[in-house]
Specification:
Layout: E1 10-12, H1 15-21, H2 24-36, E2 39-40, H3 41-48, H4 52-64, E3 68-70, E4 81-84, E5 89-91, H5 100-117, H6 120-127, H7 134-139, H8 151-170
Parallel strand pairs: 1-5
Antiparallel strand pairs: 2-4, 3-4
């Protein structure tokens, strides 16, 4: 595996694939498949806010870009089951200033992802946190830290975080602890604009 992609994410560089994924239903489908495993369009439909036929259409569209694929059939072998191709996905804004199509597609996908997850912390605080056991509640929550770093240093920080996460993300399900539970780690990396840097003081 590429050392810059320790988490086993699928890497998206095609602007058309980015635009295909930049849709609320398709992002919801991928999230649901990654979290709960293989499912049919009918099983996915209530969770993604679409009818089974519309969900099926979105699944085929995602499959066309290699983001989902057929899974092993379930008990009813007549019903097509789908699975996510990878645990996650990643994309980057193209560095070439001339690649306006790629930059625009990455921007659209970023905006959709921010919109999709914007209310997740609030919903967690309202619906999940009150019922957590004390040991889980103590470890949960939000941290907001401002740094003054170079682009190279920020890349090293991101690499270090992924180095720590990788063994837990990629381990075989059979090796997970008996008392383990799913945890959503959200990382917002938000460099400030140059105009916000006078004095370089935190």
């Amino acid at each position: 595996m590429d050392s810059s992609n320790r988490l086993g994410d699928i890497e998206i560089s095609d602007p058309q694939a980015m635009r295909a994924l930049a849709h609320p239903v398709r992002l919801a489908i991928l999230d649901r498949l990654r979290q709960h495993g293989p499912a049919t369009a009918t099983e996915l439909a209530p969770d993604v806010g679409a009818t089974p036929s519309v969900t099926s259409w979105h699944l085929r569209h995602l499959a066309g870009f290699g983001l989902v694929r057929d899974s092993e059939p379930g008990p009813d072998r007549r019903r097509r089951r789908w699975e996510a191709v990878a645990r996650g996905f990643r994309f980057a804004t193209p560095q070439d200033p001339a690649d306006e199509e790629g930059r625009s597609a990455a921007r659209v996908l970023s905006e959709q992802m921010f919109l999709r997850h914007a209310d997740l912390p609030g919903r967690w605080a309202e619906e999940v946190e009150p019922g957590l056991e004390p040991e889980w509640r103590r470890l949960a929550g939000l941290a907001s830290t401002r740094l003054v770093v170079s682009a190279e240093e920020l890349a090293a920080i991101e690499d270090g975080i992924e180095r720590v996460l990788a063994p837990y993300v990629t381990r075989d399900p059979a090796e997970r602890p008996a008392d383990g539970r799913g945890v959503q780690l959200m990382r917002y990396v938000l460099p400030e604009g140059a105009e916000e840097q006078p004095g370089q003081t935190p």
